[in-house]
Fold:
Amino acid sequence: MLLGAAARMEEKGAITGRQRDQFPVGMRVLAVDDDPVCLKVLETLLRRCQYHVTTTNQAITALKLLRENRDMFDLVISDVHMPDMDGFKLLELVGLEMDLPVIMLSVNGETKSVMKGITHGACDYLLKPVRVEELRNIWQHVVRRKFSKRERSNLDIYKDFNKLPSTDPCHSHNQIIAGACDQSGRISKKRKEMHSDEEDDGEENDFQESDEPSAAKKPRVVWSIELHRKFVAAVNQLGIDKAVPKRILELMNVEKLTRENVASHLQKYRLYLKRLSAVASQQASIVAAFGGRDPSFLHMGAFEGLQSYQPFAPCAALSSFSPHGLLGRTSAATFGVPELAPAMTVQTATNNGIISHCAGDANKFQLSGLQENQQANLGQGSTTSLGLPQLQQKWIQQETNDLSAFFSGSALANTLSGALQRVTSSPLPPQELLESAQTKVSAQPPITMPSVSSELVERTVGVSANLQDSSISQQGALPINDGFTADKLQLHDPFDSTGGTRFSVNMLVCPSGSITASSNTKGGASSCSTVLLAPDTGRHPNYLQFGVAGNSRHDMNEIKQDHLHQGLSTGSFNHNFGACMTEQTNPNVPYLMPQMKPNTMASEDKLKQRNIYDLGIPKLHGGFSSSSCNFDGLLNSMIKAEKDDLSFTDNDLGCDFFPLGACI
Amino acid sequence: MDYSNLRRQAASMKKSLFDQGYLDEQFCQVEDLQDEASPNFAEEVVTLFFKDSAKLISNVEQALEKYPKDFNRWDAYMQQLKGSCSSIGASRMKSECMSFRDYCGQGNVEGCMRSFQKVKREHGALRQKLEAYFQLLRQAGQLVLLELPPGPGCKN
Structure:
């Protein structure tokens, strides 16, 4: 059988089969560079290293080749500056869709470019002219990736791997990993950090038998939104501490899903939550660093992010778990959008419910967080531009573009547009905001805009990077900032090759303040899974771009923190989340909204609200103005809830969400 | 024919190209890539370079005219040219490209124009010299550079 398998491999691998047995000799490299001179030299250098080289001068062709057969290559080397597609974008897409190591090449060795490459997921960044010595060692990236994936795969897979007798571990790795990794979603921790985690594009669930010995490729389990939602629901139901794969599997009751699939997914999920909390704490620190400007900034971020992210929020959220989900997610996103999803629900699965909820929370937080009159009205859309507006606008635009670009590659573009449209048509008040935002967003060419995207991506990356790094302890899941804030980040996240970040970002962005509050450490607090990785993370240079607004945000955050500490988050969250949780199954933003509405905000609160918006809401908010009333209502309800519930300390996070955080 | 003489001439020409800074270490790498499978690799690459760079230069030229003060665009085009130069080791040309990009960064139109002229000059000069060099090699019956001992400037 081994022989048979080997024979098949040989056939399949054709010429390179034998070479691959002698890895790194025969390693299959795809080289992409629009400059024919560089490409020719590179090709020859690579051949000199005994790699098997395929070249193309167009990124689009490269993508096509890769998509046609993911297994055709082991490594991709790409130039950064290409006319048809930005190298960073290609990098992200490759990392996202194919999970191949990508090395960037550029004449530009500036730190920020290199940083961008890394944050987009490049496993190396070489300067032109490339020397042969540098190329001799690039095979290490292939091995490293496989190795880390292997470690991450579940035991069964590992066993399979070991079972396969092959003289060349790398070679067999190819096969096993292909199958095994698929099974575990091919998500390595590292990758998770860097790319969007899950795989492939929006397939429906493909289940595989995890017990099959793998010599051939197994169909992967694709963690679609639906599936993930069930997963999250099961985890929440069990309580994050008690959530064991076996029980989760039972609760999920999905045919053909194995315990191993669940186990590996759970592992990733936990990492994800951990990352969120890390980001949250980081944010908190950033907020602290900035001092209090206005919460509006936060809001702004929320808004903006929301706007653009709306459709993506779910995606983003989900993305970490299932990259392909992005595609699938888009549809989920649509749910989110109408939902008002300011909250990039962490869970993602429950986009709808969560989203709406988050939005509410966001509002709430804003109100509470803002010290005084800072609360920008979410709804008010008082767009007194803070200066951020432009930035945010740009973000949104960028996001859109980015998203468009991102999706354009796949069939997501349509979905995205659809999502955008849906948002527009959503009846919920916040929706109005969204609508306006969306419209704005939609207005932008949803179709690929590589150039813009790259810029966006850049930003995103920056953000994502930050998020990633930030060790947010808060879990601030709730998108305090109207869910809109931080969205920017969130959106970016998905695109960011650093999938992990992406995910967290999307989490409802809670003003850092809120996040801080929640960072009460307790799992519950953090469970707000929505990590608001607001652009507050001044750490990353890109974040800084977000402007000074960041400062204000931070201040806001601080302020918010205080408020948040007041249990706002927890209390309200519980309240809201509870609602959300139940909502999980269907986008019930409307459901949630009405709940909020009845609460009337105190005039003071309103004032606060208004302030917030005034402070930071960028033009976007202007767009929101129409729906402001609704938001206000939402905010009011949030605030009220908050007031009712002031029990932040204890994290009576009845909300199921919290358990998620507790996972960490 | 006195190949050894021609060889010596070629070697000395190459040395002077290095000494004058027209070429750098990267050129050695390119020449090193020649082997039995691609005996004329260096010349092929150089030919390709001049063809491609002529196009890039004309792109820059057009951009300078059509898009006044569009430094980003100019810079982008020049960056491409710089990449090519660095791939074959065209050292002086590369320096001029970098200086052009610096002027772009400063928003200095005058500087850009001047620098661009220099880029063109270097391009022309290098082309002339390399053509002569390869011509000589051919005459020396040594396009297969395997026979030519590594020239000065190459570290082998």
Observations:
- Helices of chain B lie at 3-19, 25-32, 41-66, 71-88, 91-106, 109-139.
